[in-house]
Request: fold
Amino acid sequence: LNHPSTQASTSKRLIMKTKHLFAILFSILTIGAFAQGPGMNGQRGGDPAEREARMKEEMEKTIIALELNEEQANQFREINERYGVKGKELREQVKSGEIPREESREYFMDLMLERDDEIRDILDKPQWKAYKKLQRERQEQMMKRRNDRAGRQP
Reply:
């Protein structure tokens, strides 16, 4: 049972499950913000300035929760900002029809996995573990809110 090939196989499955979970979370964060329906100014997901402020607030909460040092915090912000721009560009490509909507999930997952790799490189093991836990908790909260909204709709 403790054969190295069995352990490697189990480890690979765990890594794949973790990447898949992160992909789902990223998709929910990036697509979900725009799928909430018209906001205060008629735009999907609400006012862009408010949406950006919420995202920055969440990023700062994460930095505090992970106890990142100044260098890590700056790198974390830069990675998130860069991938935020990439996500916005990808959404525009989907919106324009350049990327078929049916295929967009795969593109978002790839983008999220790239981001995941960069974030993993700046965190130590305990921080990475805490980061993944935060992601799981946020995903559970989002799914609960989604289910609550679905239950109230006619």
Q: What stands out?
A: The helical segments are 4-32, 48-66, 70-96, 101-122, 125-152. The longest helix spans residues 4-32.
